[in-house]
């Protein structure tokens, strides 16, 4: 199966996009404690137009770059810091994480739970050997992001998904990906799955 070529749409109105990212950050910096106590978990994703807009045609917006990416990272980590302070005041066990995706940075998010740890071992697995330079080896590390990223201890993981080898649609997708993304076959329940590396992700974990 040939890969379908993706058309990238031009990002217009950079200043408007910057304001949208700042508004997204401001809206999410206050952790909803009431909801957290009811649901025991909360998260915030990068819900900013146009990156979350649904397209009816075979085209997507490119991932944020330059100032847009720097703003995304700055606001994401500000959310993490303020959530961490709010969670500490609860004086009960919590698990707080930031997921900074290496390729599709727009997938990045902050997520937390209270009274129970998060288990994403079926989604993230550590790379065989951590980069010698740590976060400095990230595509996102530059003069504009270094001050923020250097404050934290990141670990690099693989972001993986399982595809059913008995499902024709899954098999068609498996045949379209690069061989380097194919990790292993694995039995889950009674089915055989192909494990595929979708992206790399830097994880920041805080458990108290």
Automatic annotation (TrEMBL):
<protein>
    <submittedName>
        <fullName>Uncharacterized protein</fullName>
    </submittedName>
</protein>
């Amino acid at each position: 199966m040939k890969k379908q070529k993706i058309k990238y749409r031009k990002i217009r109105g950079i200043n408007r996009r910057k304001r949208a990212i700042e508004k997204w950050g401001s809206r999410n910096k206050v952790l909803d404690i009431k909801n957290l106590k009811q649901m025991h978990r909360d998260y915030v994703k990068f819900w900013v137009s146009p990156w979350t807009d649904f397209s009816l045609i075979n085209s997507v917006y490119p991932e944020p770059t330059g100032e847009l990416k720097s703003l995304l990272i700055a606001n994401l980590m500000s959310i993490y810091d303020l959530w961490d302070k709010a969670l500490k005041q609860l004086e009960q066990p919590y698990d707080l994480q930031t997921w900074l995706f290496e390729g599709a940075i727009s997938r990045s998010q902050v997520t937390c739970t209270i009274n129970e740890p998060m288990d994403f071992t079926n989604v993230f697995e550590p790379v065989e050997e951590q980069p010698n330079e740590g976060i400095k080896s990230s595509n996102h590390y530059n003069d504009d992001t270094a001050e923020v990223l250097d404050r934290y201890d990141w670990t690099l993981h693989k972001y993986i998904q399982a595809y059913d080898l008995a499902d024709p649609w899954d098999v068609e997708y498996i045949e379209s990906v690069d061989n380097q993304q194919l990790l292993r076959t694995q039995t889950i329940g009674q089915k055989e799955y192909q494990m595929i590396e979708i992206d790399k992700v830097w994880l920041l974990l805080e458990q108290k």
